[in-house]
Structure formats: C-alpha cells, structure tokens
Amino acid sequence: MLTLNINGKTFITDAEADTPLLWVLRGELHLPGTKFGCGKALCGACTVHLNGVAVRSCVTPVAAAAGHEVTTIEGLDDAVAQALRRAWTEIDVVQCGYCQSGQLMSASALLKANPQPSDADIDAAMSGNLCRCGTYPRIRAAIHLAAKGR
Amino acid sequence: MAQFKRRHFIIGTVAAAGALGVGWLAAPPRQRLVGKKPLGVSPGQAALNGWVKVGSDNTVTVMMSQAEMGQGAHTGLAMVLADEMDAAWESVRLEQAPIDGIYNNQAAVVDALPFEPGDNGLLKRGSEHVLRRLLREVPGLAETGGSSSIKDQWLPLRQAGASARLMLVAAAAKAWSVQSSECTTESGTVRHPSGKSATYGELAADAAEQPLPKDPPLKAPAQFRLIGTGLRRLDNLAKITGTAAFAIDAAPPGLVYASIRMCPTVGGKVASFNAAQALAMRGVSKVMTVDPVSGSLAATGNISGGVAVIADTPWRAMRALEAVKIEWDHGPAANLSTSSLFAAISSALDTQEGSTNLKKGDVAKALKDAAKTVKAEYRVPLLAHATMEPMNCTVQFANGAATVWAATQAAGVACDAVAKALGINAAKVDIRVPFLGGGFGRRYLSDCIVQAAHLAKATGGAPVQLIWSREEDMTHDFYRPAYIGRSEAGFDSAGKLIAWQLTSAGSNMGAPGFLGASSEGASNTPYRVPNIKIAHLAVESPLAVGIWRSVANSENAFFIESFMDELAVSAGVDPIAWRADLLAHDPRALRVLSRVAALSGWGTPLAAPDGTRRARGVAFHRCFGSTVAQVAEVSVNAAQEIRVHRVTCVIDCGVAVNPNLIRQQLEGGMIFGLSAALRGRITIEKGQVQQSNFHDYTPLRMSECPEIHTEIIADGTTPGGVGETGTPPIAPAVANAVFALTGQRLRELPLKLA
Ligand code: FES
Ligand code: FES
Questions:
Q1: ipTM for this model
Q2: Fewer C-beta within 10 Å: chain A N or C terminus?
Q3: What are the residue boundaries of the structural domains of chain B, listed by start?
Q4: A118 CB within 8 Å of a chain B CB
Q5: How far is A19 from chain B (nearest CA, A)?
C-alpha cells in the first residue's frame, strides 16, 4: 500500500510500486485531466507537478511519488494558474485540447520559477510539450500575457 | 477529408436514384428543419425544430452533429444558429444530435463531385440535386470532414434559428394580443413597443405550439450580431481545467481495460499465442485474439490482427500484454518496403498513363511543338496522423444493446460497424461522441472501435476500454499514401506557357479511378494554360492507407506549386507575377496573391537580426472552396537545417463566421503541414513501420514554430472550408524559399538539403 498526496488530498493505492503515476491517476483515482500521449516522456501530455516541479507522470513510478506533493491539472488553482487560464481564454489557445493539461502544467512551473520569461526561456521550458494541433504561437503569447498580467 | 466515402457514395447514390423513380427525382430536396423523430427534451425544455431546444431557464440548446476535434466547429456552428435566433450567447449550450438524415453532411458530398470549377452545367446541377435529394433519405452521414461543417450547416442552422425566433415571437404576440411584426428580438428576449417583454425561456413552451415557419426570412449580413465576431471558444473552460471529456476519459461503472499488440507487419495477423504467464498476472481476466480490421470507404487495406489483454487497470493490461508470447502470420506485406513501394509507383509511371481527370487542348501535341520544355518529378512520403489522443474506444455490450464512447468523425458509420461486429441492429447502438483529441482524417475510420466491440463480447456485460499504445498507434495507421508526381511543361518561342501536364501516382485509397479523387487540388486547378492534362495512376499495395488532413491536396499542392516555381524561374519571371499571369481571369485568386505579397514584404530586402541570409518563397492553392496563399521566410544553418522564421498567410473563405477561430485553424493547419514538410516520414522495412513514437516521428516543437501572420478576406456570401486549407501550400512555400536561398530545388518531402 502506498499513500499519495494529490492536490492536497490523501489517497491510498495498492497499485504495484512500478506502476506509472499516470495510470494510477487516470485508471484508479479518476483524475482523467492528466493525459496519456506517448508513455515514454516524449510528449508532455501527462505532465504533473511533483513538489512543484514539472515531471512526466508516464515515467514516474507511483512509489516515487508517494510521500511527495503531487499536483494535477484538477488541483492547479493558484494565482499563477488563474493568470494562465485567463490568458489561455483571452487568446483562445486550445484546439482539440488533448495536450493542454500538460501545456498548462509546464507553463505554470515555468512562470513560478521565472515570472518574466523570455522567448528563449519559453522555448526551453515548453519544447517538451508537443501539440499536434499547432497551438504553439498562442501558447507563447498566452504565457507572455499571463506574465504581464500578474 | 472524406474524399473516398463521398465519392463512393456518389456512385451508389446515383445508381440508387434511378430506382426511386422520376417523380421522386424531380421533387425539391426535403427540408432539413425537422427530423424524423421529435427531439427528446428534459423537463422545462421545448424543441422548436430539429436543431434547437429552449429551456424555461432560458438556455438555448443547439443540436450538434459535428465532432469537435479542435477545429472550433462547435463554437462556429452555435454562433450561426444563435445569431439568426437572436439568442443570448451566454445561454447557448450544446447537445450531441441524434442520428437523422437532416444532419447529413451534404456539402462534403456535393463539393466532391468531379466537376471543374466554374462548370455549372446541367449534368453538374442535376447530380447535385440528386445527391441532395438522396442525402436526406439515409440517416447517419453526419460526417465531420472535408472542411465542411460550417459550409454544410450554414443555411440549415440559419433557417433553424430564424424559424425558432419566429415561433418565439408568435408566442409572445399571441400572449400580448399584438401583431408579430410589431415585436423585436434581442439577446434572448422578445419586446413590444408597448414596453412588454418576455424571455425566450418564458415563451418556449407556447412557442413550441406555434406553426413551424418553413421558409423564414434570413438576416442580411449587416444585421448579424455574432457572425463575423471573434467570440471565444465554447470549449475553452473545459479544456483548460482538465474537465473536457475525451473518449479515453469514459469511465462507466465496472470499467475494465484492454491493451492490444498488433502484428508488426502491416495487415498480418496472429498465428498462435501463449498467454499462460499473462493470465497468471494480477488483475488479468482475459487474453484473446483480435482479427484484422478493414478500413471503411475512406481507406484501403487492413489494420493487422493482434492479441488483446483485458485487466482491471490500464497498466496491468499493458504489462501482462508484454508477457504474452505471440507468433505472427506476417501475411502478404512481409516483403514490403518504402523503396519497393516507390519503385512500383515509379515503374508504373514509366509505362502507364493513368486516368485523365482534366483535359484541355492537346498537351502531347503542344509539348511536341514547344520551343522549350521543362520536366520535373516530385515525391511525397507516407505520413502518420499521430493524433495526440491515441486510438481508443470504450464499449459496453449487455442485453443485446451497446453503448459506445468513441472519438469518431463519422458516428453513423461507426455505429453501423459496431452493430455489424456485435450482430445487432444499428438502432441498438448508442454512440456517444466526446471531444476528439485530434482527428486529421484518422478518426473517420472505425478500426479501433470495431476491435473494442469484439472485446466487449468477452467481458460479461462489463464496459471495456481499449487503449492503443503510442507505438501501436504509430505503426498501425491508415497512412497518407506515398505519391510521385511527374510534370512537364512547354513554352512557345515567345516564352509563353502553352502546355502543362501532371501525372500523379500512388494509392487511390479504394476509390475507383474515374472519380478522380486523387487529383483533387490538381484537376480543379484555377491555373489557365491553353493545353492541360491532369492524370492519376492508381498504384496499390497491401499497406493500409487513408485520408490525411487536406487529402489529395496535401501532395498535389506540393507537386503543382513547386513546379510553378520552377516554371517561373525558367521563364525568368517573379514567382508571384508568374502565378498572377496564369490566374488573370480569377479576381479572387489575384486579390489573395496581391495581399500576401504586400503583407509579407515580397520583393523587399530581407535582413535577419543576426545577419544570416534569409529568403522568401510563395505558394498558392485553392481547396474546399477557399483560396489561400502563403509566403514563407527561411534560413539554413551551418548544419544545413532549414528553419522557417515567418509565414504570411492570406485566405479568401467567402464568409468568416469567427475570424479568430479561422486564424487559429490556419495556424494549426500550417504547423501540421510544416511538421510533415520538415521531417514527417513513415518508412517501411520488411512490411513493418520503422517509426514508433514521437522520438522518430516528431511534430514541430514550440522552439521550431515560425511567427505566423494571417489575413482573412471574407466579402462573399457563402462560407468556404477552413480546417484543412492551411496545410497544402506550406510545404511548397518553404521548398520555394529554400530554392531562392540556396539554389537547390528540393523535389522530395520531407525537405532535406544535400
Ligand atoms: S505521455 Fe508522458 S510524456 Fe507523453
Ligand atoms: S490542442 Fe490538440 S494537441 Fe494540442
């Protein structure tokens, strides 16, 4: 049995220790906002925060998350997140939306570490998050807008 | 994107039309206002026609037959109805439409009729009429594709909105004993000059009792309040809070999960398997084979058969699958390779002519008489769709009925496929279409849905969710086929272009050659040359192939726009001036070209901030009823890598329902096309796809994304398509810019400098 702290709540899971956190979130804890895209840390759709740091939950064994603070898109609700969501809406970033949980998790980790990122900072922080719909120009603009608006 | 289904449909329907008799044919197409069955309503709701329900809480619920896969159709379509109805935008809700002929996508079919642009002859009008008539008779063709959602529902939704508005006004007029004509409407309220007013919610129940206005007057464009404005997307909130429901998020009670491994050789199947170890693993309930599944009318070839493991969690299913020992029957494609595929296409082109889809004058003679000829061959590779949401489907089969949660662009077709797999009537299939995590044509096909239906027979009535791994998704796609295009042109002694021919070769994706589907974007070219011949030669292989965003336009735009650039260079004419000369008869094309020239700074010196050399390239294309031109600005680094810095795009799409979302689609379409142009390539060795995940089939990243500027021209009366139109011109625009910069003519995608 592992004890997880997710979005400030405690969950107990009997999942095997090597189960990727992603599948525990989605398949057992019914937190489907974190998405499966590649399973190999190649796309960023599954990004969550582990103690505030953006990680790919598809390659994070659930045992490694036990005892740490996990935040998923469902629990992302601080001032930075609100600024990002306002900007995302103002700029109409989303298309299919499937990558967007991961995009927002990465963007929020970026803005927390670097409140006024340059384009190069955004490239570095966001280039691991693929978007097949091509929302990149709007993500960039929305991150700048959120940074300005805070 | 439904080229093939559409075109197949044409044959079937025209044949069927004969059977229905002359009287039936002569009648006008039936109305699209009310369906066969009245809409279901919840307490307090009243249906005013087949498209809209009004609740006593003032909500206006628009019936949505189109899938939302990112293209913004939900928002745009709702705007069209809400505008005519004068509904309050905040009160608009959406509900999945039932399966009924009124929602059938007529535009997707009629647009694909193999007629030349400008042809408005009797045969064309007659065929259109027959198709529109027929399309109202069969249910289940409310497909989402061919960039046609807005185009198709533009009139029906406006009529539905206007008709509902008149019923609400009539109810108010009756209650107030005044004339309807004295009442006005705005933002969900009917008002009378006497000061009386009532909300749509208050009037809904009475309005439903009013006679149905069948041919309501529609607003003049100047009266639009929502159409033409950049309203924000309706799905924003759900998609930024992680609450948007995708098919993969379906979680009915008792859900079990399935993972599948398909034969790595395309079209192969399972010879035998040993599941002893897997069955002993925790949570595993079943290990079974799944037969190969064919595509539908929009594709050809089979998705391989495989072995599926069913378990209580997704991870246990995946892990147990690795423990299954499988022997494969590799089937007929065991020796297929990309090079054998191209060799077959190339040698077919050496000896055969294919079917001619456009012919003007006598190209052979003109080429013989020409003072100078130019020839070139171009190649485009196989491409995967790689939707961000991998293929998945959830099916529950209990008591002879099925519930399906599926990301599909063709719900009616999927419904029929499930019914067939389960041996039940399609009426017993309840299909729920959540948000699609990308479609791009891949989700026209029901292969994964059929697999899930088969698995659902083995779970004792429990719902089962089949999730493909990214590796399975990448290696078992209905790929955009590989094509070769050969062009030849002739100039007379005065340097005037007198002849042009293009023969493309590759898969017809199951469509009969005479329909010319694979020449879309070529046989309807607006370029005017005295002698033209456009032909396509079908060369098939065992590989599963299907439609991919913009379908045949994706290769034909590359073939044509690259060649046009070569001709301009050969003639010593500026590439935009060259095109304008061949389009002199076409004011819309000319305007798009001149705007893209002005906006991109065409002809002005280019200076990169860091002093590196850059150059521009242009491409022009007309598809799905819209006209697009793009200018790309590129540089090449020391490692010979191409970098696209800036793209300027101008579209004339007739009517712009939501300019903001049109820009969004153009950006998305261009980035999608750029991913393919710069590195998209699926290769095959020994019948097996070599790419498996995003490390070797990598869409463009944020850091590689160009700055994009778009301009919309929209002073027409009917909307053109948008969702796919950004994709076709980008590859040739970049290739032409690379030529301008380096002098290297890249005739093969993905673009790679020597
Ligand atoms: S699913 Fe984890 S990075 Fe793609
Ligand atoms: S919005 Fe569709 S993948 Fe990013």
A1: 0.98
A2: N
A3: 31-104+139-241, 247-333+385-475, 561-754
A4: no
A5: 7
